């Protein structure tokens, strides 16, 4: 099952191939996507993305996870989250959001 491409990105808006929704923040995995509501896990810019935020995507069996830090890189990704993902055998790439989308779409193109 392939991951959907991110079709467009602008400040506060992201569209994913195969979805009619426009996301503010989203999680994307092979075969799907959904809105990422930071309130689900109490996420804030700092300390940032926690293992609980990525667990759903980990459970989808991803081998590589690209995490966007926001357009102005205000969202933190602490070392503990990166370490958690690496222990799961996942290649982690943490980038500014525009760069993250380019990287993610390049990986999707490689399948």
UniProtKB/TrEMBL annotation:
<dbReference type="InterPro" id="IPR034096">
    <property type="entry name" value="AAMDC"/>
</dbReference>
<dbReference type="Pfam" id="PF04430">
    <property type="entry name" value="DUF498"/>
</dbReference>
<dbReference type="InterPro" id="IPR007523">
    <property type="entry name" value="NDUFAF3/AAMDC"/>
</dbReference>
<comment type="similarity">
    <text>Belongs to the AAMDC family.</text>
</comment>
<dbReference type="GO" id="GO:0005737">
    <property type="term" value="C:cytoplasm"/>
</dbReference>
<protein>
    <recommendedName>
        <fullName>Mth938 domain-containing protein</fullName>
    </recommendedName>
</protein>
<keyword id="KW-0963">Cytoplasm</keyword>
<comment type="function">
    <text>May play a role in preadipocyte differentiation and adipogenesis.</text>
</comment>
<dbReference type="InterPro" id="IPR036748">
    <property type="entry name" value="MTH938-like_sf"/>
</dbReference>
């Amino acid at each position: 099952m392939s991951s959907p491409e991110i079709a467009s990105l602008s400040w506060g808006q992201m569209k994913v191939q195969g979805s009619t929704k426009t996301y503010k923040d989203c999680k994307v995995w092979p075969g799907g996507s959904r809105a990422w509501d930071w309130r689900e896990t109490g996420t804030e810019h700092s300390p940032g993305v926690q293992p609980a935020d990525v667990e759903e995507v980990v459970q989808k069996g991803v081998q590589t996870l690209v995490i966007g830090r926001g357009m102005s890189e205000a969202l933190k990704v602490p070392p503990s989250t990166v370490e958690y993902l690496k222990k799961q055998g996942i290649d982690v790439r943490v980038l500014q959001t525009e760069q993250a989308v380019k990287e993610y779409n390049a990986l999707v193109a490689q399948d």
